[in-house]
Design brief:
Shape: globular
Number of helices: 30
Oligomer: single chain
Number of strands: 2
Largest sheet: 2 strands, antiparallel
Strand order of the largest sheet: 1-2
Strand content: under 5%
Radius of gyration: 31 Å
Structural class: mainly alpha
Helix content: 55-70%
C-alpha cells in the first residue's frame, strides 16, 4: 500500500511539472494535482480534502495517471477544464472556462469523466477551492462546474408542459374554427342570389369594405363559447397586432416613445450582460479602460432612464382614459371601480404568469453551455417567491429586498401596479378641482423627494459609476434596494403623467398655438435637461468623485427631471407643436411593435440569459460585435414577444371582453 501511494505521488509530481508550462493560465487540474500530490492518503490527519468522497478521490487519482499515460479522454478532460487567471490585475479576467466541446465529447466510459459528471458538485467545489488555496494563485476564484450536464424533468417542468399543451390545443382548435368560419362566410356570400346580382358592380368599384360587411352578415353571430374559442385564433390575433390604423382620439406619439424606451432598456441589459460582464468577457480590461471612458458609452449604461418613459405613459393613460370614463358615466361616484382594478390585474397577470412559468421551468431544457448552471439559482428564487410576483409585492417583500429577485426586472410591474392602485386619489382630485389636484401632486412629490434624500444621505449612496459609499450605511443590508425599485421613489414620474393626462383631457384633442420662437426655446430647454441627466455624471467614469450633496441632488431629482422632458415631448406632439419629432414618434411603423411591447419587456432578459448562459467560450468585445449582437437580441426578443402576444396576451384580453357584461365595458 505504501509503495502504491509513493507511485501515485510520484506520478502526480510528474504530471504537475509537465502541465504547468503556462504561468499566466495554470490549468485548474494543475492545482488539484498539487493538492493530491501533497495529500495522497485521503484519510491522513489534516487532509483538506477529507470531505471529498472516496470514490471521487480515487477517480481523480486514476484520471491523473491516465493523463500521464496520454490517454485521449484524459487529455480532452485536461484541456477542457479551464484555467485560473493569475494576471487578473492586468486583464480583469477571472477565469478561462476551457474547451467546452472537448468536455462534452470526452468518452463517458472513462473514469475521468466521472470526476466532472458523476460526482457531487460539493466534491468538485472542495477540490477546486483547495487547489486555489494550495497554489495561492489569486484572491479570486470560481468553483462552478462548467461542463455539459443532463437535466431531468422536475414537477414544475411537467406542469408547464401540460399547460403549454392545453394552450397549444386551444390555439389549434380556435384557429381551425376561425378558418372554417371564413370559408363558410365566403361560401355563403357566393351562393346568395342577391349578392351575385351585385357582384359585377362591386368588383368594378372594388369596395373591399362592402365585401367584408357581406361576409359578416353571411356568418351567424357566434355564441359565447364560440367567441371564447375564437379568441385563441392566431389569425385574429395576428390581424390585430399588424393593423396600423390609429384609434379615434388616440395619442399617436405614445407608440414611438413606448417602443424607443424599450429599445433603450434592451440596449442597457445587453450591455450589462454582454459588454460589461467580467465573467463572460475575454478583454474585460479593454471594456473598463477604453469603452467605459468614451462619452458615447454613457448612453449605454444610462438606459435605465427608459423606465421613466414607461412611468409617464402609464400615469398619463390611466388619468386620461379614466377622466374620459367619468364624463361618460356621470362622475367618479358612478364609475365601476371593481372593474377598474379587475381589468388592470387581468390585463397584466396571465401573460406575466406564463412568462414567469417558462422562466422558472422549461428554459433550463432549452440549451446548454459553460454558464448554463446559472439557471439553477435564477429558477430557485422563482420557485420559492413566485407568489410575491403574482401579488405585485416582489419589490417590497422581503423589505428592502433587491432587484435580483425572481425575474428581477419585474420590479417595474410591481411599482406600476402599486401606483395604479392609488392613482384614483389623484385622478378624482384633479376631476373635482385642478388646483387641489395640483397641490396634492406637488405635496406628494415633495414628500417623495424628502424620503429619498434622507435614504440616499444616510446610506451614503454614490452617483453614476461611482461605487464607493460616502459613509457607512445606517441601515442594513447595505446592498439592499432602498429606493431604486420602490414606489415612493418612482411616484413623482408617475404623477407627471397623471397631471399631463388631465391637461390633455381638458384640451379634448384641440391644438395649442405656441409662438414658434417660444416653442423652439422650450424644446431646447427640454433637450438640455435630458442631456444633463444622461451626461451629468459622466465625470464619475474618469474617477472624479462628486461631493455628497451633489450626489444626493442627482439621485433624488434626475429621474423627475427626465420625466418632465418626456412630458413636454408628449404635450408638444399631442397639441400640434411637435414638428418632425411628432412625425417620427407617430410613424405607423411603431404601432404593431407597441402592441407587443409589454411581452417584449417580459421576455427580453430571458432571451439574453439563454444566449449568455449558453456561451461555450469567453466573449470578445468589439463595437461592431456588440452592435450585431444587440440587434440580434432586439429582433429575437420582439419575435418571441409577437408569438407570446398572439398565444397568450391577446386571447386573455379577448376572454375578458367576451365574459364581462357589455354594460360594464363602458366603464
Amino acid at each position: 500500500m505504501a509503495l502504491r501511494r509513493s507511485l501515485i505521488t510520484g506520478c502526480f509530481i510528474l504530471v504537475t511539472i509537465l502541465t504547468t508550462s503556462n504561468a499566466q493560465k495554470p490549468n485548474i487540474m494543475d492545482s488539484v494535482f498539487g493538492v493530491l500530490t501533497e495529500w495522497p492518503n485521503p484519510n491522513a490527519t489534516g487532509n483538506p480534502l477529507k470531505n471529498v468522497t472516496l470514490s471521487c478521490y480515487r477517480n481523480m487519482q486514476g484520471f491523473g495517471l491516465d493523463l500521464l499515460m496520454a490517454k485521449t479522454y484524459a487529455r480532452e478532460m485536461y484541456e477542457s477544464s479551464g484555467s485560473f487567471r493569475t494576471d487578473y490585475d492586468l486583464t480583469h479576467n477571472l477565469k478561462d472556462p476551457g474547451n467546452y466541446w472537448m468536455c462534452v465529447h470526452a468518452d463517458p466510459q472513462q473514469s475521468g469523466k466521472e470526476f466532472l459528471y458523476r460526482e457531487s458538485e460539493n466534491d468538485v467545489t472542495i477540490l477546486v477551492f483547495e487547489g486555489y488555496q494550495h497554489q495561492q494563485q489569486s484572491p479570486y476564484y470560481d468553483t462552478s462546474v462548467t461542463c455539459y450536464r443532463q437535466y431531468s424533468l422536475r414537477d414544475g417542468d411537467i406542469a408547464a408542459i401540460v399547460i403549454c399543451s392545453v394552450l397549444l390545443a386551444a390555439i389549434l382548435v380556435g384557429t381551425i374554427y376561425d378558418v372554417y368560419r371564413m370559408i363558410r362566410a365566403d361560401s355563403s356570400v357566393n351562393s346568395d342570389p342577391e349578392v351575385n346580382a351585385h357582384t359585377e358592380i362591386r368588383d368594378h368599384i372594388g369596395n373591399e369594405e362592402e365585401n367584408l360587411i357581406m361576409k359578416q352578415h353571411a356568418t351567424k353571430n357566434p355564441g359565447v363559447a364560440s367567441k371564447c374559442l375564437l379568441t385563441f385564433s392566431v389569425l385574429d390575433s395576428g390581424r390585430k397586432i399588424l393593423n396600423t390604423d390609429a384609434g379615434r382620439g388616440s395619442i399617436s406619439c405614445l407608440n414611438g416613445i413606448r417602443v424607443l424606451s424599450m429599445f433603450w432598456i434592451i440596449l442597457l441589459h445587453s450591455y450589462l450582460y454582454l459588454g460589461s460582464s467580467p465573467s463572460y468577457s475575454e478583454n474585460y480590461r479593454f471594456i473598463t479602460d477604453v469603452v467605459y471612458q468614451r462619452w458615447t458609452a454613457t448612453v449605454l449604461w444610462q438606459g435605465h432612464l427608459g423606465v421613466e418613459g414607461f412611468l409617464v405613459l402609464s400615469g398619463l393613460l390611466v388619468s386620461y382614459l379614466t377622466l374620459q370614463q367619468f364624463d361618460k358615466c356621470g362622475g367618479p361616484g358612478k364609475h365601476r371601480w371593481w372593474l377598474f382594478y379587475l381589468h388592470r390585474y387581468w390585463r397584466l397577470t396571465p401573460v406575466y404568469a406564463f412568462c414567469l412559468m417558462m422562466y422558472a421551468t422549461l428554459t433550463l431544457h432549452m440549451g446548454n453551455g459553460v454558464w448554463w448552471f446559472s439557471w439553477y439559482g435564477a429558477q430557485e428564487v422563482c420557485q420559492n417567491k413566485w407568489w410575491a410576483n403574482m401579488l405585485y409585492i416582489n419589490n417590497l417583500y422581503p423589505f428592502p429586498g433587491t432587484v435580483s429577485e425572481c425575474m428581477g426586472w419585474s420590479w417595474y410591474l410591481a411599482v406600476d401596479m402599486q401606483l395604479y392602485i392609488i392613482s384614483p386619489i389623484f385622478i378624482i382630485t384633479f376631476y373635482k378641482s385642478w388646483r387641489a389636484g395640483l397641490g396634492l401632486s406637488l405635496g406628494t412629490i415633495l414628500c417623495s423627494f424628502g424620503i429619498c434624500a434622507y435614504l440616499v444621505t444616510v446610506q451614503g449612496m454614490p452617483a453614476g459609476l461611482d461605487q464607493k459609499p460616502y459613509r457607512s450605511p445606517k441601515y442594513e443590508p447595505a446592498t439592499g434596494d432602498w429606493i431604486y425599485g420602490k414606489p415612493y421613489y418612482r411616484i413623482p414620474q408617475y404623477l407627471v403623467g397623471v397631471g399631463l393626462g388631465y391637461v390633455l383631457f381638458i384640451l379634448k384633442g384641440n391644438t395649442v398655438r405656441i409662438n414658434k420662437i417660444l416653442n423652439l426655446c422650450i424644446w431646447c430647454v427640454a433637450a438640455a435637461i435630458a442631456l444633463a441627466v444622461v451626461y451629468g455624471v459622466y465625470p464619475t467614469v474618469t474617477g472624479h468623485r462628486l461631493p455628497q450633496f451633489a450626489a444626493v441632488i442627482y439621485n433624488v431629482l434626475h429621474r423627475f427631471a427626465f420625466s418632465v422632458s418626456i412630458g413636454w415631448v408628449i404635450f408638444a406632439c399631442a397639441t400640434g407643436n411637435g414638428g418632425p419629432v411628432n412625425a417620427l414618434l407617430s410613424w405607423s411603423f411603431w404601432r404593431p411593435l407597441a402592441k407587443i411591447n409589454y411581452c417584449a419587456y417580459l421576455v427580453h432578459l430571458g432571451v439574453i440569459f439563454l444566449y449568455t448562459f449558453g456561451f461555450q467560450s469567453l466573449w470578445y468585445y468589439t463595437d461592431f460585435h456588440f452592435a450585431v449582437e444587440y440587434l440580434g437580441v432586439l429582433v429575437i426578443s420582439y419575435a418571441v414577444a409577437f408569438i407570446t402576444t398572439m398565444a397568450v396576451e391577446f386571447p386573455m384580453i379577448g376572454l375578458e371582453r367576451v365574459l364581462l357584461p357589455s354594460k360594464s365595458k363602458n366603464s
